[in-house]
Design a protein that fits this description.
The chain has 27 helices and 26 strands. The protein is of the alpha/beta class. The strands form 7 sheets. An 8-stranded parallel beta sheet has the order 16-15-14-5-2-1-18-17. α20 runs antiparallel to α21. The radius of gyration is 27 Å and the shape is globular.
Amino acid sequence: MRTPVSTYRLQIRRGFTLFDAAETVPYLHSLGVDWVYLSPVLTAEQGSDHGYDVTDPSAVDPERGGPEGLAAVSKAARAAGMGVLIDIVPNHVGVATPVQNPWWWSLLKEGRQSRYAEAFDVDWDLAGGRIRLPILGSDDDLDQLEIKDGELRYYDHRFPLADGSYTEGDSPRDVHARQHYELMGWRRADNELNYRRFFAVNTLAGVRVEIPAVFDEAHQEVVRWFREGLADGLRIDHPDGLADPEGYLRRLREATGGAYLLVEKILEPGEQLPASFECEGTTGYDALADVDRVLVDPSGQPALDRLDASLRGGEPADYEDMIRGTKRRITDGILHSEILRLARLVPGDAGLSADAAADAIAEIIAAFPVYRTYLPEGAEVLKEACELAARRRPELDQAIQALQPLLLDTDLELARRFQQTSGMVMAKGVEDTAFFRYNRLGTLTEVGADPTEFAVEPGEFHARMARRQAELPLSMTTLSTHDTKRSEDTRARISVLSEVAGEWEKALNRLRELAPLPDGPLSALLWQAIAGAWPASRERLQYYALKAAREAGNSTNWTDPDPAFEEKLAAAVDAAFDNPAVRAEVESLVELLEPHGASNSLAAKLVQLTMPGVPDVYQGTEFWDRSLTDPDNRRPFSFDDRRAALEQLDAGDLPPSFTDERTKLLVTSRALRLRRDRPELFAGYRPVQASGPAAGHLLAFHRGTPVAPGAVTLATRLPYGLEQSGGWRDTAVELETAMKDELTGAGFGPGTVKITDILRTYPVALLVPQTAVTQTGGKS
């Protein structure tokens, strides 16, 4: 198996095709990247910027460059000695425009007789053999249907007609009644939908890849990539949605000839990737959480907790109670149709009414501490969730007792489907709701993290890294992705608030007075985001504010927006640009945070690039990237600027200040080159302990082994506190051998070396034994 040393994620779309990606390969190789990492490239909904709505799995998307584009990327990568990792989407396909999806079009036209009927996860019996499509504004809109060119039309929506279902002169309503599908008002989807989706997205229909014939047809193009040597590895999107993730990975490993595989799997604190999964690890959200928290000041928690409580009327946020409520909001709302489907699978002899079964199932799911189980693995988790649900709702105890053995029986469809459903509720109830409500420090509410874990001390961080080195050395690490709520540099700046909680409280109070918003927790979220992303365009911040408010669902929401509140929200964002007092307050706060945020950014980047695992660099983040949630984190950027800056660095023009964004490029390129060119310098892991008055402000580790010196990473943590306490002073480290900093070229050691000497120019250093070959290819 070929495995990567590092990857660089590229978002492939109509505006940046596979041919464009091929042209970037020389720059990526110069940057030090080992593998090119591509977002989904199979044919997707026309105009899709993300590619997760695949409409035809049999071909590379023409809009993205087609098969010729993929061949061009692979050829360029091979010429540079690089590998290719590609993101694939096995759980669902895009059905927003049925005519673009041959499988879905066949299903709608032929119903249960379609050769693709078994590919989709439809409860046909619920709707009398028809598939329900929540397309209409309301059911009254059936009068708006038309027959045109042999199709049923609803405005711009096109649907096929079953053979023999239309005769000239028939009314569209009557023709609709003869189809294998039923168009219905979109609001009915929450309770009456009868096909599995991706989360609550009606335009993404679940696919049953656990069926061998479906797997084979869905993966024929993917298998070709490996047969023809176009790809080296795969990133598997949302495996938790599959009926049998373990079986899927086993089959995929075989089909690809034993290729490198990663899963987009969210691991909750303490949760382990199932040992039965045939893959090398996850896409790195668990690593992101560790890096973020070691740069958060634990002493700031009491003040931020008090501030958060004051914004909630004096009551502190109870996160466990909050997510129980947000999960029930999802089970009783946008995913209620999935809960009702589970209830319909409960055997009649269980003695439960449909309502009692649905309520108990929802309560059990709401008590889940992880996304899902993989029975028989995780059986104890399910039992504990049942116990917690019964304690919370004693009146449901009998129903829960009746359900537990059924949910543990993997021979039952109920148990299998329950496992697919719990992850949906976790994602929508926690990531997409609670993470916009629990706002004491925005850094903590990131995908894959537990926001109740406020900070991690260096000792615990080192313990986690040692485990990673021992157990998941080929798992990906990341700081930013196309799914993160805030980019790495936005979070790095927000993390400084943990060091300046008093100043933050004063600033927030002034901002709330100058630009009132009748939702205290949301106001904290909003002004943290603005401070973290500043300077940002009005359009970007307005979009983020509206999305955050609707996701939180406290003062407005997606289905029934509150125009009055949203007007106040928009006015608050506008005030940051139009009200001199508000703008001055924002800029004053950013001025306080910025240098320390930059220090945090460099620390996070170097730590992530040199810690155990396979580091990924998300496109463009070798410069400052202060993005917010999608689609903001998919904005266009300039490779030309980065290429030119890298040439300057290589010519010896080093940034004089760490606040210069070229410093981040310096850190990224030197770390990536060293990892690629001298992998033996990253063969182990052990902490490096500093001595002296500021020892707690240094995060340092050695990647060598007991018999061979390796690279040493030194990074500043809690930079504001370090500055306030008088700097490094006599803080020092012991270097076992003479070493050279890859960033500055300065030499140090052996012996006791003061940190102030090593970190004189930048807040981070990457030390290499003097006898090692450096990234420039010469001897030190």
